[in-house]
Design goal:
The protein has 2 domains: about 290 residues, Glycosyl hydrolase domain, family 43 (Tachylectin-2, Chain A); about 140 residues, Sandwich (Jelly Rolls). About 0% of the residues lie in helices and about 55% in strands. It has a 6-stranded antiparallel sheet with strand order 23-34-25-30-31-32, with no helix packed on it. It has a 6-stranded antiparallel sheet with strand order 24-33-26-27-28-29, with no helix packed on it. The structure holds beta-D-fructofuranose.
Length: about 450
Amino acid sequence: MWKNKFHITPSHGLLNDPNGLIYWKGEYHLFYQWNPNSCEHKTKHWAHLKSKDLIDWETLPVALEPKDWFDKNGCYSGSAIEKDGILHLFYTGNVKNDGKRESYQCLAISKDGINFEKKGPVIHNKNIPKEYTRHFRDPKIFIKNGIYKMVLGAQRVNLTGTIVVFTSQDLITWSFEKEILDGDFGFMSECPDFIEDGENAALLFSPQGVEAIGDFYNNRYQSGYVIRELEEIHKNSFVELDRGFEFYAPQTFKDEFDKNVLIGWMGMPEELEHPTVKSENWIHSLTLPRTLEIKKDKIIQKPHINLQKLRKERVQLENIVVDKELDLSKFNISGETYELIINFEKIESEIKILLRKGKEEYTSFAYNPIIKKATLNRNYSGAGYKGIRTCSLNELNNVRIFMDRSSVEIFLNDGEEVFTANIYPKKDSLGIEIMSEMLFTIPKIEFFKI
Ligand code: FRU
């Protein structure tokens, strides 16, 4: 009952990071870390799907299985790039011999985008520079100034996290270039990525071991970015990409419009107590695709334009007055899977939107204009993890909410901030209610069934 309807979700077993995202020969290819054998972090395969529009996905045979000497304990995360019409996948072969970790950066190629031929390691475990441990993984490849670059998550021998760059002319021979992160980013940085948007650039990564400060870094591990050039050592500060709960290890790719798009893992390492494990034998989904733009030193994330294809019946309301509380069910605005857009005019007192509201449960999104904070509260959402996440926001002009069977993504102010969370309400908790301390008018509400 919680299997998401329009998010990528495994048929069974455990899903984690999105891998190998690429628009290739007119189709999107998407892979993800998949353990088909149980809902634990073991035996990682690369599951494979493709799509013409990022909406309707066709499941293809598993692309990579952990069965060779260089990847026998897991085909870990990595990326895809096209060269001479051939699809190249780079991934980390995780190996444990007598409990000792080895890490191989491996290549697999495909001409038809279905069958992959493993070529083995391009960076051998024994060639990892001596400054780093074997926590050395997640190759993301891209071209910069005509040279192939590979960014990798790494751990220094003093057990602090960093990112390193390798370069190559041909995708086969790789040389270590340098470390590109200074400062203290916990004990490991996973899944690095790099985007350029016009004059601007950002380095994305998922650090582990960063301590919480106030509203920041409250999840087990973080995922965010620094606005900077690739090799310009950290000068701006680290910003979290998502303000909610389950969001980690995202990866970017260029879509058919040559825009940067991001898909993240709607999960968190080491958090396996989701109710779907026992009742439905699966765990975790991917986020919706988000188009990225860098504006004023910030990454703006908008739901990908193709998501409009999900829209079914529409209800639109204008100039709706909220007198303390407004139950939207009476306008046929309620349900399990939907997109809901609310445009606001100046908000003068705290407002709340209660989602998946049932007899005893709801998920609440609130904005308080006095303290200028937005809050997602899932303490009353139903089964699963609980908690509250808050972020500062100068004003709230609009919210765009994507509700699926067990997840919610809330985009604020056309992508200025996003809150992502897994929630596990009862099947009949379908209500949507708006509450306000003061009487106020909402200029426009748009609702689409999905
Ligand atoms: C991030 C991560 C990656 C690794 C993969 C293994 O969630 O730990 O660093 O490659 O998952 O599944």
